[in-house]
């Protein structure tokens, strides 16, 4: 077996195991985690949509919250908490102050078009701010986000199995909806463990294996510049989420700078926005952030960087390693939503990546345009 195939096969086994164990580990952590100090909560959303085709063929149903559920969550936050701009929490972290535990900031990752069409409208209804982290290479569908491309190909192909010789030793079963979902989780997890060159090769092989049989996408995927400008004019913050959504710690220095600084330059120079905040892509894995990447983010002129590691935002964390509380479709009823928010606000994560950023990353107050 070639070196490349051996490495990709090892990564496939890791990703497959992670996909199978994700549900168990997520809930086990909530049962055994202790309360280790609090802070305020930064919520992490992705998509607000009520289309079952979208929440199957385009994005994972797990990250889609229905509009009526989002509306109810905003109403709850308005009654029980104080929704503040992310910048207000970042300022407290930089100053070493403990944020008001009632503060909540709302953030969205990736830049899906429903963020403007549905989420933004509901935020305005409740007079609440939010930060939208945008994958800039995909703005206005200039290219389709690789996670969407993989999911759409595997979910819509007419094939009942596919062969990817460099990735798996045998055929991948696509004979049922559950089998297709397992394949999506496996291949997506694999790409998140790959370097840029490996990721491009793996994505191409998966897409080729699904052909013929995949029809064209019928829906717009990402927001466009006009929508982003309107959102900023009306109190929303727009942040960077890299250019192509690669796993940043696996990139060489030059490619890393292109992804981080390139996102900021696109949003500011091409669209005319003011960009201060960044979110690391490819979350749910501890290795989606580290001190080297955080340092590049600060050098590129951002003043904060949010992770996908669950926990409270407070003076115990670097503003370039902000934990967030993920909101998923599995915990959308008010009792579960409230419990998840409080758990994330109170439980300090045990994360080697966050510890690395705190010890070896940029100092508090780094970043800003004068550093770029």
What CATH architecture of the largest domain would you give?
Alpha-Beta Barrel
* N- and C-termini, Cα separation: 45 Å
Radius of gyration: 20 Å
Low-confidence stretches: 15-37
CATH class of the largest domain: Alpha Beta
Assign a percent range to the helix content. Answer: 40-55%
The name of the CATH superfamily of the largest domain reads Glycoside hydrolase/deacetylase
How would you characterize the largest beta sheet?
Answer: 6 strands, parallel
Number of helices: 13
What is the N-to-C order of secondary-structure elements (H for helix, E for strand)? HEEHEHEHEHEHEEHHHEHEHEEHH
Shape: globular
**What would the CATH topology of the largest domain be?**
TIM Barrel
> What percent of residues are in strands?
5-15%
Overall mean confidence score, pLDDT: 89
How many domains? 2
Give me the secondary-structure category: alpha/beta
The strand count comes to 12
Sequence-ordered SSE layout with sheet pairings:
Layout: H1 3-32, E1 41-45, E2 47-48, H2 54-58, E3 64-65, H3 67-80, E4 82-83, H4 86-95, E5 103-108, H5 113-125, E6 131-134, H6 146-156, E7 161-162, E8 172-173, H7 177-192, H8 196-209, H9 225-233, E9 237-240, H10 253-270, E10 277-279, H11 291-299, E11 304-306, E12 325-326, H12 334-346, H13 352-360
Parallel strand pairs: 1-5, 1-12, 2-3, 4-5, 5-6, 6-9, 10-11
Antiparallel strand pairs: 7-8
Helix pairs in contact: 1-7, 3-5, 6-7, 7-8
Structure in a nutshell:
This protein has 372 residues and is of the alpha/beta class. 46% of the residues lie in helices and 10% in strands.
């Amino acid at each position: 077996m070639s070196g490349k195939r051996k490495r990709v096969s090892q990564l496939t086994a890791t990703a497959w195991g992670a996909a199978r164990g994700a549900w168990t580990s997520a809930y086990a952590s909530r049962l055994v985690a202790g309360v280790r100090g609090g802070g305020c909560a930064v919520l992490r959303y992705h998509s607000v949509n009520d289309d079952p085709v979208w929440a199957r063929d385009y994005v994972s149903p797990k990250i889609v919250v229905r509009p009526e559920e989002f509306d109810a969550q905003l109403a709850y936050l308005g009654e029980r908490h104080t929704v503040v701009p992310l910048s207000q929490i970042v300022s407290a972290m930089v100053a070493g102050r403990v944020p008001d535990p009632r503060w909540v900031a709302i953030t969205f990752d990736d830049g899906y078009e429903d963020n403007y069409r549905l989420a933004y409208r509901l935020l305005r209804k409740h007079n609440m701010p939010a930060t939208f982290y945008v994958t800039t290479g995909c703005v206005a569908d200039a290219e389709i986000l690789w996670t969407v491309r993989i999911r759409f190909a595997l979910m819509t192909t007419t094939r009942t199995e596919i062969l990817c010789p460099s990735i798996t030793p045998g055929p991948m079963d696509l004979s049922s909806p559950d089998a297709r979902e397992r394949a999506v989780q496996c291949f997506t997890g694999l790409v998140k463990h790959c370097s840029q060159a490996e990721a491009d090769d793996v994505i191409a092989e998966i897409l080729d294996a699904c052909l013929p049989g995949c029809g064209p996408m019928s829906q717009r995927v990402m927001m466009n510049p006009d929508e982003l400008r309107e959102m900023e004019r009306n109190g929303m913050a727009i942040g960077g989420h890299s250019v192509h959504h690669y796993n940043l710690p696996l990139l060489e220095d030059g490619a890393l700078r292109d992804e981080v600084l390139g996102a900021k330059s696109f949003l500011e120079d091409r669209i005319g926005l003011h960009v201060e905040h960044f979110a690391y892509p490819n979350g749910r894995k501890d290795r989606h952030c580290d001190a080297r990447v955080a340092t590049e983010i600060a050098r590129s002129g951002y003043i904060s960087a949010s992770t996908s590691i669950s926990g409270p935002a407070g003076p115990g964390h670097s503003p370039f390693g902000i934990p967030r509380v993920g909101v998923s479709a599995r915990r959308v009823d008010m009792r579960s939503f409230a419990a998840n928010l409080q758990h994330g606000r109170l439980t300090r994560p045990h994360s080697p990546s966050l510890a690395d950023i705190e010890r070896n990353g940029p100092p508090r107050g780094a970043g800003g345009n004068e550093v770029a």
